[in-house]
Write a structure and sequence with these properties.
With 127 residues, the protein is mainly beta. Helices cover 0% and strands 50% of the residues. It is built from no helices and 11 strands. The mean pLDDT is 95.
C-alpha cells in the first residue's frame, strides 16, 4: 500500500527555518513528480512547490528564494527547506505524488488529479 508520510513540522519563530520531509513507500519514486501544498485554517489548499523525477522544480512566487524543494530518489524522500519563515507561512503542509506529472500546477487544485497524498504536517510561526 502506497504511503506518503510527512514529518518535520513544528513551531518556529518568524525568520527561522524548518525542513519538512515526505517519505514515500511502495511506489517507483523516480517516476513521480512530487508536490508540496499548504492549507491554512479557513482557506483553500494552495500549491507551494513541485519537483519532477529528474529534478526540475517550480515554485509559487510567494515562496521563491525562501523555500527550496529537493528530493533523494535513493531514499524515496522529498524535502522542503523553509527559510526566513513569515507570518503568512503557517499551515498544514501536505505532500502529494503524481506519476509523470508536470511541475506546473493547474489551478484550481483538484485533489483527485494527484495519485497520492500525505496526512499533512503542521507548521506554526510565532512572531
Amino acid at each position: 500500500q502506497v504511503q506518503l508520510v510527512e514529518s518535520g513540522g513544528g513551531l518556529v519563530q518568524a525568520g527561522g527555518s524548518l525542513r519538512l520531509s515526505c517519505a514515500a513507500s511502495e511506489l517507483t519514486f523516480s517516476r513521480y513528480t512530487m508536490y508540496w501544498f499548504r492549507q491554512a485554517p479557513g482557506k483553500e489548499r494552495d500549491f507551494v512547490a513541485a519537483i519532477s523525477g529528474g529534478g526540475n522544480s517550480y515554485y509559487v512566487d510567494s515562496v521563491k528564494g525562501r523555500l527550496t524543494i529537493s528530493r533523494d530518489n535513493a531514499k524515496n524522500t522529498v524535502y522542503l527547506q523553509m527559510n526566513s519563515l513569515k507570518p503568512e507561512d503557517p499551515a498544514v503542509y501536505y505532500c502529494a505524488a503524481r506519476i509523470f506529472g508536470t511541475v506546473v500546477v493547474t489551478l484550481p487544485i483538484k485533489p483527485n488529479d494527484y495519485d497520492y497524498w500525505g496526512q499533512g504536517t503542521q507548521v506554526t510561526v510565532s512572531s
